[in-house]
Amino acid sequence: MRVDCSNLIGGEWLEASSTIENRCPANTDELIGLAPDSGEAEAHAAIAAASEALGEWRQTTAPQRGAYLYRLVRLLEENTDRLAEALAREEGKLFREAKGEVGKTIRYVEFAAGDCRRMTGITSESELPGTLAMTLWRPHGVVGLITPWNFPVCIPLWKIAPAIAAGNTVVLKPAPETPATAHLIGELIQKAGIPKGVVNIVHGDVAPAKVLLEHPDVKAISFTGSTEVGRIVEKACGERHKPVQCELGGKNPLIVLDDADVGKAAAACALGAFGSTGQRCTATSRAIVMHDVADAFVEQVLALGKQVRAGHPMIESTTMGPSVSERQLAQVLKYMEIGKGEAELRLGGGRSTEGDLAKGFFPEPTLFDRVQANARIATEEIFGPVLSVIRVGSIEEAIAVANGVDFGLTGSVFTQNISRAFQVIEELHTGMTHVNNPTIGGEAHMPFGGVKATGVGPREMGPEAWKFYAEEKTVYINHAAASRKSNIY
Ligand code: NAD
Question: Largest CB tally within 10 Å, which of 55, 93, 232, 271?
Fold first, then answer.
């Protein structure tokens, strides 16, 4: 498959002054295409195009905007395999997982399309006679969207859909590691007939993203990425009073209590730790296990880890793809070395280079046992298939360890006791908590996001997602014939 990418600005496909190669991380001989390495000029042009398109798009009624999104849903359905192949080849996710990501995206875009008939405010009796009080929701204007590589179909569209549903125009700056999926999304947006300039796409890295943060015509920013970059984004937006939404890193715990179904817990843990090469923001990176069941749990996760088959994501028998890039693999290998000095290595701990794997960036599925709660591998985000098992003596200690990190995206508890499950639900400081489920997963109609260093601003997805992309205006209408004073006199 070859996908050469261009910037989408004002409905035109435009080149940038320089390009970068997009190569498959499972086999770097495989050139997927070229992509623009845009600078500031391209971002300025995209913001100008989005500003120009704003007037007409605001006049398009919300249900009409929803009709465009329903058309996009149908096109996403028709083009699932093509999008999934581009995603698998450039990000390294298994083809079947990539299809799952496109399916999840479709369900959310459909939900956002329905929101276009549900963007209701409140109406109320007033304190004053002859007066109606109500609220209206109005778009911000041009919104900047900056996205990561690990869900390059889902995340751009779970921002684009509610943003344009609410009447904004947008500039998307996708991750430089995954330009092909962004390009294909742009093609489908055009095919759906969404007017020129409503959705603009500028490829590249820091330079165009920085323009979005700083430009006065970009009225709000939605960012998903690392906590480190999120801090820069929050600061830039805070200085300019721009509404900002950041979904950042994670260090998600899976707690196994001594009454748990250990087999189920081990299966969920292996899926969350090694699935998608550990490159999900919701990946399980810590298993916090009570002493009585720890040995049995570790043996079962080890057995599952040994069954992992690394390989090209388009090959059916592969169960784990590569890290997305050489840089990402280097980060994972660095933490494996740190872990060797901190804990007991039970599985993996290096790079896979047998046969064709040498052509890609494959980390080994890795398990460290008897990890201290404050070890670096147990507190810092690795973003690879590396699991730390921390053994604890009580539910209270398990919760304290789970909460003892900077992050707070998701967490899971395995127990057959409803009271203990609720104790964890109440006390675990995360945006999302699962009971007897893996740490991964989320549904279109439910809010998604984290707390602490993982999340700032309102949640994405779910029934309220569009509200981040709108300003609430309160209106009082005096319809009485007689003039009157304010209610404070
Ligand atoms: P990243 O922070 O390196 O990059 C994200 C985006 O920010 C990219 O588009 C990048 O070009 C841009 N960027 C980089 N430097 C910038 C700067 N100085 N100013 C403005 N923009 C800049 O993240 P990544 O490596 O692409 O993605 C992995 C990270 O994303 C992980 O930490 C993961 O946990 C997180 N993530 C979080 C969620 C969530 O919902 N919480 C979801 C997916 C990924």
Answer: 93
Task: Find the DSSP H helices in 166-244.
Answer: 179-191, 206-214, 227-240
Contacts of 130 (CB under 8 A, 6+ apart): 478, 479, 480, 481, 482, 484
Residue 269 tokens read as 């843990």
Q: Say how many residues make up the chain.
A: 489
Distance, in Å, from the CA atom of 41 to the CA atom of 218, rounded to the nearest integer, reads 15
Our answer to whether residue 247 is catalytic in this structure is: yes
Rounded to whole angstroms, the Cα distance separating 430 from 255 reads 13
Is 166 in contact with 469 (CB distance < 8 Å)? yes
Question: Of all atoms in ligand 1, which is nearest to the CA of residue 175?
Answer: 9
CB atoms inside a 10 Å sphere around CB 264: 16
Catalytic residue among 281, 364, 381, 460: 281
Q: What is the per-residue pLDDT for 26?
A: 98
Rounded to whole angstroms, the Cα distance separating 285 from 367 reads: 10
Sequence-distant (6+) residues with CB within 8 A of 2 are 31, 32, 33
Q: How far apart are CA 455 and CA 26, in angstroms?
A: 31
* Residues 43/47/53/58 CA torsion (nearest 10 deg): 130
Assign 485 a pLDDT band (cuts: 50, 70, 90).
low
What is the value of pTM for the model shown?
0.97
pLDDT at 477: 95
> What type of residue is 55?
G
Q: Which helix (H) or strand (E) holds 172?
A: strand 169-173
* Residues near ligand 1 (Cβ within 6 A): 146-151, 173, 175-176, 205-206, 209-210, 224-226, 229, 232-233, 247-250, 281, 381, 383, 409, 450, 454
Cα 354 to averaged position of ligand 1 atoms, centre (Å): 31
Q: Give the pLDDT confidence of 39-54 residue by residue, as tens digits.
A: 999 999 999 999 999 9
- Of the candidates 247, 342, 364, 381, the residue annotated as catalytic is 247
Q: Which atom of ligand 1 is nearest to the CA of 146?
A: 9
Q: Which amino acid is at 113?
A: A
237 is catalytic: no
CA of 284 to the centre of ligand 1 (A): 19
Q: How many CB atoms lie within 10 A of CB 367?
A: 30
| C-alpha to C-alpha distance for 325 and 148, rounded to whole angstroms | 13
Compute the distance from residue 174 Cα to the ligand 1 centre, in Å. Answer: 10
Protein residue with its CA nearest to atom 22 in ligand 1? 206
| C-alpha 120 – ligand 1 centre gap (Å) | 32
Identify which of 367, 352, 75 has the alpha carbon closest to the alpha carbon of residue 194: 75
CA angle at 358 for the pair 97 and 299, rounded to the nearest 5°: 60
Closest C-alpha residue for ligand 1 atom 34: 249
Checking if the pLDDT of 370 tops 90, the result is yes
Cα 426 to ligand 1 centre (Å): 30
Q: What is the per-residue pLDDT for 481?
A: 73
